[in-house]
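Supplementary notes (optional reading)

For those who missed the lab, this is the record we used. Protein: Glycosyl hydrolase. Length: 485 residues.
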Amino acid sequence: MRKFALIGLLLVAYAGYAKSEALHNGKDSTTRKGVTVYTTAENTKLRLTETGTLSFAPMKQPLETEVCIFVDPAKRFQTLLGIGGALTDAAAETWAKMPNQKRAELMKAYYDPVEGIGYTLARTNIQSCDFSSDSYSYVKDNDSLLRTFSVAHDMQYRIPFIKAAITAAGGKLPLYVSPWSPPAWMKDNNDMLHGGKLLPKYYQSWANFFVKFIKTYESLGIPVWGLSVQNEPMAKQKWESCNYSAEEERDFIKRYLGPTLQKQGLAAKKLIAWDHNRDQVYQRASTILEDPAAAKYVWGIGYHWYETWTGSTMMFDNVRRVAETFPDKHLIFTEGCIESFKRERINEWFIGERYGHSMVNDFNNGTVAWTDWNILLDENGGPNHVGNFCFAPVHADTKTGELIYTNAYYYLGHFSKFIRPGAKRVIASSNRTDLETTAFVNKDGKLAVVVLNMSSKEIPYKLWIKGEAAAATSLPHSIATLIIE
């Protein structure tokens, strides 16, 4: 009898393993235990709240009158690298002003995958950016050999903050680094602000600067996973900025930055080009990646969502065109935030919906990683040394010590908490424009389907997978993640 019981246990264990392997390797399983639903919705108290379970039942051909989300777990696409946010000077300084208990709360809220939303990716700035309290450089003027290089400025706030985030994330947090501007004396306008260009005679010094920064941070216990060439290289801003044409960025990569990283033992660092908006992402990507001498150094193309400043909507098709044309490279969303902070608008629902709309469509068009901008800002949407105050998913009132969670935090969590690194995107298709959707199968075999409803209507629908369906309801102005085992 004991022998037969052991055989039975082994068969059960093998069946569970086989289901997980089948799902992860592109084969659908028709044995589905059910669906657990997590919901965030306007005019409710639902915030990443478990709102029930659903069951599958046979359903052959749906009628055109039946609203459906169709999921095909067997059709696999890109692998998720991670989801996270930027660890800027502003976020670090704000965090340092909070009581210890609130500091710990914020770290758990962002990086704990069970009690928080499980961030797995981070970005930080090289030298100052607008979200710094001042404009600063790591070297003294005219030091082209970088003998005076020092990150002492970052020791007060940013380095302790990044280390705390790495610890909160379990000791591993892939970090990529981005410059807003070289030192003023390296530029043709002798100014870290207001655009300008890197002078050709300093191309090598600037490439060496990246190496200095990466090796210094790593010597301080902060591993660097990757780097971008330049934040927003087409923007002449009132804050730190530096302009490159596509050809200039291509040539800097292939003649200076790429070879320098390679010679200095940093060839494994992931080099990201563009790091600007979707509107010109194809033009920039094609100019750089069609040159084999530059392309061999480039891991992927980064992009932002601020093309809307022109009056355009978000241009997701341009992201897809890059994915289709250069399938051996990676797409990474490197920055997005809601601009023009106003304290009285902090609870408005449009904030989170912009995140949800962007993330669904960015992932569906081939993006492998998604990075929000500042993870924390103060009660004024800063600090910011040029008054460019913005929203963050979480704000801290430095006068009262209160943490304020906007709905963007929860919208982000509907992805980062349930879609984990290594997950494969699968087909998710909606038959109504009011419902947007994306889906991933995690390494453990669980399917995560995100359903976004930006309408004012409650929408009953069927979650349909290969002849089976579960009846669900999408609340007005809501986002839901459905976990299928």
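If you only remember one thing from this example: The CA atoms of residues 83 and 416 lie 6 Å apart.
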